[in-house]
Amino acid sequence: MLVILCLAETGFCWGFFAHKRINRYAVFLLPPEMLLFYKKNLLLIEEHAVDPDKRRYQIKEEGPRHYIDLDHYGRYPFPSLPRKWNDAVVACNEDSLYKYGIVPWWTQVMLNRLTEAMQKKEVFKLLKLSAELGHYVADAHVPLHASSNHNGQFTGQQGIHGFWESRIPELLADEEWDFVLGKGNYLKDPGRYIWECVFQSAAAADTVLRTERWLSLQFATDKKYAFEERNGIVVRQYASSYTRHYDKLLKGMVERRMQESIKAVASFWITAWVQAGQPNLAALADLSFSAEEKAAFDLLQKEWNNDRLAYICPDDHAQF
Ligand SMILES: [Zn+2]
Questions:
Q1: Is the distance from CB of 208 to CB of 143 less than 8 angstroms?
Q2: What distance in angstroms lies between residue 13's CA and the mean position of ligand 1's atoms?
Q3: Residues with Cβ within 5 Å of ion ligand 1?
Q4: Cis bond before residue 104 (omega within 30° of 0)
Q5: 286 C-alpha vs ligand 1 centroid, how far in Å?
Q6: Number of structural domains, the chain?
Q7: Using one digit for the tens of pLDDT, what is the confidence trace for 41-52?
Q8: What is the pLDDT of residues 213-243, one digit of tens each?
Q9: Inter-axis angle of helices 32-40 and 253-275, to 10 degrees?
Q10: What is the CATH number of the domain that holds 53?
Q11: DSSP state for residue 121 in the 8-state scheme
């Protein structure tokens, strides 16, 4: 029973469901020169969208790459927080930067790695880095990834993290939301773009928390939670009616942030491709992985299966 409760209330970044959908839909916003290659590898891009989360409880360094506690740095426009990594290290010291999260900088590291993989036409790396860059870009769009009160732990709202980013999209995205989004764009200044994303996330965090606090006062506990089926098992989770009420009060915020994530992921892939000199990806579409490369994916999956229980029930104080 404990495991079931934990599974229902622990938040993953954007949730596995949403991360996979975000990467999937992003592929369809790519220009024709990229589309063929990415479409051919759609399953891989989708499945490996969640690898960074699978690593989080295996590798200590992984956690801070998914968030930034912007409230630690005061208020917008956060004058005490330099946007360039080297300046930030001087101003804040490296340990402190890791403590409060590094997602805007890490996204740029991944972008540079992807650019290099495109230049060298390293198919395995190119796909792996695309899938994972998609993860970090999407995380930067989640309001509670930009707040130290990331799971409502300071305000008695434990569980809100997964509520916002997993429960709502799982209930509504496939049935009701619109993912016809036009095209991704080349980003002239990707650093500035990702900082804007996290600033918008931080600005929305207060609404996310305040709205749920208010709504929870209108619902009796037995109406707020319900035993409902999820992925074939019955779990205690936020009740469907409560979830719908909350989503309505947020006025489409979760759908909008998911749409913006998709557009941003496509834009970051396009930016890497343009920075790499627009290599001919169509020529790579028929290449397959070496046995060694395939084994690397399999190993991650195996480790994840072994650590599964530890992963779904992390210590409350663990950084998400
Ligand atoms: Zn994440």
A1: yes
A2: 4
A3: 13, 53, 66, 139
A4: no
A5: 30
A6: 1
A7: 999 999 999 999
A8: 999 999 998 899 999 887 778 888 999 999 9
A9: 110
A10: 1.10.575.10
A11: T
